[in-house]
Design goal:
alpha/beta, Aminopeptidase, Alpha-Beta Plaits, 2 domains, four-stranded antiparallel β-sheet, 15 helices, globular
Length: 439
C-alpha cells in the first residue's frame, strides 16, 4: 500500500470513529453533530500522517490550506471574512446593534506529530455557534466573531502564540525576525512561503476595546473530566510558567580514591532536591505544579564524582501570588540542600510568564451554561498549558471550556475527544456566548 492510500485509509478511520459516536438527540438549537464531524474530518485530512496523526505546522502550506477551508465555511454560513497581516482569519456575524464583539476561536497549526483536536475543535466549535444561529434564524444582539489564530503551537520557530500576540500588539517583531526554523531557514523566508511579511504582523494590532470578551474551547489535555465522566468543564485560570535553572556545584573527584565522608557530590545534592520538589506544590495550592524536566551532569563520567549539576524546574499556577510563593519555597529549599551537602548553588530565572485568571463572572456564566444545557453541576478546573486566551486575557475578559480528552493524551496521534463530548461542549459554548452577549 502506498503512502497516499495509507493516508486515505487513516482519514476514513478517523471519520468512522467519529461517526460511531453520533448521537442525533444532541442535534437541537441549530447545532448539527454531523456537520461538526464532517468539518473535523475535513481538517484532519489536511496534514494527516501515515500514523494517523497531524503534521500541520505553522506557516506551512497545510496550515494555510486549513485556514482557507475554514474561511470558505465561514463565507458559506454568511460570515463577513477577513485575513489580517499576521494570517489570522476572522469571520464576523453582524449583531442587532453595533459595538464590541464577542469573539471565539482557536488555532489550526499543530506540533510536529500531533493530533486532530488540539486547536481545530476550538475553531469548529466557535464556527458551529454561528452556523447554529443561522440555521435557527437567530441574530445576536451584538457582533460575534470567529477567529483562527496563526502559530499558536510555535513548532516552527520554538516560540508560539504569534497570532494572538500580534492582535494585542505584544509581538516584538525585531526579535522574531532573528529566528530560524528547524531547517535553518530564516523567519522572513518562511513567512514569504505563505504570503506573509514582518510588516503585516506589525500592522495586525487591533483596538482591544472592539472586543467585549473572548471565549475559547480546547481539549483538556488531562484526565480530570474523564475521571468524573464529564464531557466539558469550566476553566478557572491559565497557568503561566516560571522556569528556573538550578546549578549545584561541588568538587569532582576520583570515584575510587575519594572516601565517602570526604565528598562534595553535586549529583547527590541535586538528587535530594529533585526528589522533594514534588512535595512543594501541594503546600501552596491545589493548582500548583512543579516539574524537573532537564538534567545535565558534569563531568558525567562513570568513575568521576559529579562536580556540577544543572537542572530545570518548571513552576506553574493560575494565581501570580501562588506561583511566586511556590518559586520562593523551591529556591529556599535549593539553598537548604546545598548547605546540607557542603556544595554551592545558584538559581537563575530564565522565564516568567504571568498567569491569567478567568474573571468570576465569566466562570459563573460558563457554569450556568453547563447546568442549563446539560443538566449537570459545573466542574471547575485550571489550565496548566498556555493558550491564545492567555494572551487576550491580559486585555479583555476571557472564558475557557475544556472538552474531555481520552486518557488525557495530547500532542500525540492518539489524541481523541468523542463526537458526543465535542457536541455537548458546543451546546455549552453557544449558551455561554449568548449569556456574555446578553450581559
Amino acid at each position: 500500500m502506498g503512502i497516499e492510500d495509507m493516508i486515505k485509509q487513516q482519514v476514513e478511520t478517523f471519520r468512522n470513529r467519529l461517526m460511531d459516536g453520533l448521537d442525533e438527540s444532541l442535534d437541537h438549537s441549530g447545532v448539527n453533530s454531523r456537520r461538526v464531524a464532517e468539518r473535523l474530518t475535513a481538517l484532519a485530512e489536511i496534514g494527516m500522517t501515515e500514523e494517523g496523526g497531524c503534521r500541520r505546522i505553522s506557516f506551512s502550506q497545510e496550515e494555510k490550506q486549513a485556514k482557507e477551508l475554514v474561511k470558505q465555511w465561514m463565507e458559506e454560513d454568511g460570515l463577513d471574512t477577513h485575513i489580517d497581516g499576521a494570517g489570522n482569519v476572522f469571520g464576523r456575524v453582524e449583531g442587532e446593534t453595533d459595538g464590541s464583539a464577542v469573539v471565539s476561536g482557536s488555532h489550526l497549526d499543530s506540533v510536529m506529530h500531533g493530533g486532530h483536536f488540539d486547536g481545530p475543535l476550538g475553531v469548529i466549535s466557535a464556527l458551529e455557534v454561528a452556523s447554529a444561529w443561522k440555521d435557527a434564524g437567530v441574530k445576536p444582539a451584538v457582533p460575534y466573531k470567529v477567529v483562527v489564530f496563526t502559530d499558536e503551537e510555535g513548532a516552527r520557530f520554538n516560540g508560539g502564540l504569534l497570532g494572538s500576540q500580534s492582535i494585542v500588539g505584544e509581538l516584538d517583531m525585531d526579535e522574531e525576525v532573528k529566528r530560524v526554523d528547524f531547517n535553518g531557514r530564516a523567519f522572513t523566508d518562511v513567512l514569504a512561503d505563505v504570503g506573509l511579511t514582518p510588516e503585516g504582523f506589525r500592522e495586525a494590532k487591533r483596538d482591544v476595546n472592539d472586543i467585549k470578551a473572548f471565549v475559547e474551547v480546547h481539549i483538556e489535555q488531562g484526565k480530570q473530566l474523564e475521571k468524573r465522566d464529564l464531557p466539558v468543564g469550566v476553566v478557572t485560570g491559565i497557568a503561566g510558567p516560571t522556569w528556573l535553572s538550578v546549578t549545584f556545584s561541588g568538587v569532582a573527584g576520583h570515584a575510587g580514591n575519594t572516601p565517602m565522608d570526604d565528598r562534595y557530590d553535586a549529583l547527590v545534592a541535586a538528587s535530594e532536591f529533585i526528589l522533594n520538589v514534588k512535595d512543594f506544590p501541594q503546600q501552596v495550592s491545589n493548582s500548583s505544579v512543579a516539574t524537573v524536566g532537564k538534567l545535565s551532569v558534569d563531568p558525567n563520567g562513570v568513575n568521576v564524582i559529579p562536580g556540577e549539576v544543572t537542572l530545570s524546574v518548571d513552576i506553574r499556577d493560575i494565581k501570580l501570588e501562588w506561583k511566586e510563593e511556590l518559586s520562593k519555597r523551591i529556591k529556599d529549599y535549593a539553598t537548604e540542600v546545598s548547605e546540607a551537602h557542603g556544595v554551592t548553588v545558584s538559581v537563575e530565572e530564565t522565564m516568567n510568564v504571568a498567569p491569567v485568571e478567568v474573571p468570576e463572572q465569566m466562570q459563573a456564566q460558563a457554569g450556568e451554561a453547563m447546568q442549563e444545557t446539560l443538566g449537570v453541576e459545573p466542574y471547575y478546573l485550571p489550565s496548566g498549558a498556555g493558550h491564545d486566551a492567555m494572551i487576550l486575557g491580559r486585555y479583555v475578559p476571557v472564558g475557557m471550556l475544556f472538552t474531555q480528552s481520552l486518557d488525557g493524551v495530547s500532542h500525540n496521534p492518539g489524541e481523541w475527544s468523542s463526537l458526543d463530548d465535542c457536541v455537548q461542549t458546543i451546546h455549552v459554548l453557544k449558551r455561554f456566548v449568548e449569556k456574555v452577549i446578553e450581559s
